[in-house]
Amino acid sequence: MFRGCAKVLLVLLIAFPSIASAAFFERKEGRVLVLADEVSHRADAPESSFESAFADKLGWVSQKEKPFPTTKDPVRIWAKFDLPAVTVVQRVFVDSSPWERAEYFVVRDGKLVDRQMQGTLVPLSERSGYVGMTPAASHAGFFGVDLLPGSHTTVFARLSTSQDYAPIRWLRFYVWDSSQVLQGERQDRTVEGIYVGVMLVLILYNLGLFFLVRESSYFYYVIMELGGVAVWSVLYGMSTEYLWPEHPGWDYSAAWLGLAASVWGMMHFVRRYLDTPRYFPRSDIWLEWMSYLALPLLLAAVMPLGNRLFSVAIYLFAGIGSAAVISVFAVIVLALRHGHPLALHLFAAALVGVVGVFVTLGAYFDLFLATDWTIHATQLGSAITGIMLSMGLGFRLRHTRKELAEKQIAEALLQSRHEREKRELTEEHSRGLEAKVEERTAELIASQRQSDLLLANILPRAIIDELKANGVSEPRRHEETSILFTDFSGFTQAVSTIPPKRLVQELDEIFRGFDDIVAENGLEKIKTIGDAYMIASGLPVASKDHAVRCVRAGLAFTQFIETRNQTAAMKWGLRVGVHSGAVVAGIVGKNKYSYDVWGDTVNIASRLESAGEINKVNISAYTYELVRAQFECEYRGKLTAKGKGEIDMYFVLREKAKPHVEPAPLS
To answer: What are the angstrom distances between the C-alpha of 488 and each of 392, 535, 549, 615?
Structure first.
């Protein structure tokens, strides 16, 4: 079964350039005639001209008598053929194999009436015309001919190729109805434009996320999809038309570069998406080595392969691509068997892409009705796969954050359990020393009271009660809280100029004053770090006016400092920042209890403090919405906060005066 799957994938990858041709071109919409036996040919010399070829009636060889001999060497020939007679004026397009240079001479009734230039390596500015949505590797380009009733039209073609980029398999010319070709081109251009537009939006979006979160999976996604878009653009001729019209030969380099980037990016994307270094280390090594096998394809992008190496490169890509696809699906199946939470989404996305390829193959081999939808099914599947994988990266990021949060909570729970077990062992030991305990009961009671007072200075009362009741305090998420940070301006410089004892006295006096303000407003002091002072409101017991209390305390802090500065020898400048939102709170620490809070709300409050000004309370827009009815505020605009981008900030000016209510008249 494995070998059978490998053979199917090999066929898919070898047939890929063919099935990826433009829909109208592949479905032969408008092709009315194939000229093969009707074509005559003769060798071309550098000094020959159209006049000499036209005048020579004997040097031509008909393909019906002697078919054009294929070779791997450079080819220069003349070819001529007659176009069919018509009863009404009709314009047709004619194209041929991928000749690097094709010069056409149109002769009507024995007279030269038109001369046109086409060719895969001829710049668009030198061509007589251009019909897009066709791959350069498949043909030399369309040239138009007007067929007139009663006239005999013959085309002379001067053809040459080095066969360094694409081989010439036969000498044929194809006649197309021009109106159907142009209509098919318009339809394909619309489909291809939508596809490229969708993919570029996904690429730019995920590239922005990569620079924002610095997660490598987004980078590999961009490389993988960018390589795919490059290949599709080459196969539909859009790269030459829009990017390098004067260098159409660059298409061949872009195609090989896109294939190498797509395979390399896919291998590393799967590694990062499923986190194989962590879950499947052996498979990770295999995927990494498989990614390096795509690098030889880069050689084809920087050097002409020639006819002899072209087939080798195609089969090399088919083998590498088959092995890459099989490896990816094998790792996905392995992840599914082990219950990886993201494997099913990745499997579904990959399956959509494979189904798109099979539908296009079915249309190509007449298993399905060949329509724009079935012919473009590979691109449609590729776009849907890109969207699903982009969504999957979001799922992965949320999953990673969830794992991190669960790990933090588990560590906090484990810490609490250790403390409880330690307390239980202590109590068990105490029961064995009951006699001695009775003698020291009075001392222990006094010590316990002192411990309770000390514990009350460390933990909130509700947490203390929970510890006493349950022996453990569970970490909790509080949705509506406010966090306040303070910091002294110029504290670092002050440390170097003030004796340590005096500095500690200053901080002790100020923080004692802050402690009184915190107690008056029913807030919770979290901790002090150096000169920073942190408090919280709305936890562990929720309060509807948490933001109002916090802001009122912040104003009180600044008023306390301003009042103190009037008489104190040392003048301090205080910055205050307040932000409201959700946090996780709980007890941490092994040897000492510490009640702390975590979350983005804490980080933003700290950034607001850093972005504030001396003796002013700086709040976020969300906090402003909660306190605007009680306080007068001044909008500062959108200011940059480190690591958070731009944040709307407000200065709190003062608390609004309560409205005066006239007493009701006595009846």
So the answer is: 45, 15, 21, 9
Q: State phi, psi for 529 to the nearest 5 degrees.
A: -130, 100
Q: Which class is 192-404 in CATH?
A: mainly alpha
Question: Which residues make beta-bridge pairs with 598?
Answer: 584
User: Which segment of 404-413, 433-442, 563-572, 618-627 scores lowest on mean pLDDT?
Assistant: 433-442
Q: Give the least confident one: 47-56, 420-429, 460-469.
A: 460-469
Distance CA 490, CA 531 (A): 10
- Of the candidate ranges 33-42, 358-367, 565-574, the one whose mean pLDDT is the lowest: 358-367
475-655 carries CATH number 3.30.70.1230 = yes
The secondary structure of 114-129 as a DSSP string is EEEEE-TTS-GGGSS-
Question: What's the whole-model pTM score?
Answer: 0.56
Euclidean distance between CA atoms 620 and 609, whole angstroms:
10
Q: What does the pLDDT read at residue 136?
A: 66
Cα 117 to its chain centre, rounded Å, is: 43
Three-state SS for 173? strand
Strands 573-588 and 616-620: parallel
- Kind of pairing, strands 75-82 and 143-147? unpaired
291: Cα within 13 Å, side-chain hemisphere: 20
CATH, domain range 36-171? 2.60.40.2380
Beta bridge partners of 639: 647
Q: What span, in angstroms and rounded, lies between the C-alpha atoms of 586 and 145?
A: 83
The domains of the chain are located at: 36-171, 192-404, 442-473, 475-655
Q: How far apart are CA 245 and CA 203, in angstroms?
A: 24
Bond prior to 167 in cis (omega within 30° of 0): no
Residue with tokens 């053929």: 81
Q: Within 10 A of 292 (CB to CB), how many other CB atoms are there?
A: 10
Helix (H, G, I), strand (E, B) or coil at 408: helix
Distance CA 303, CA 138 (A): 20
Mutual angle of helices 343-364 and 377-432, in 10-degree steps: 170
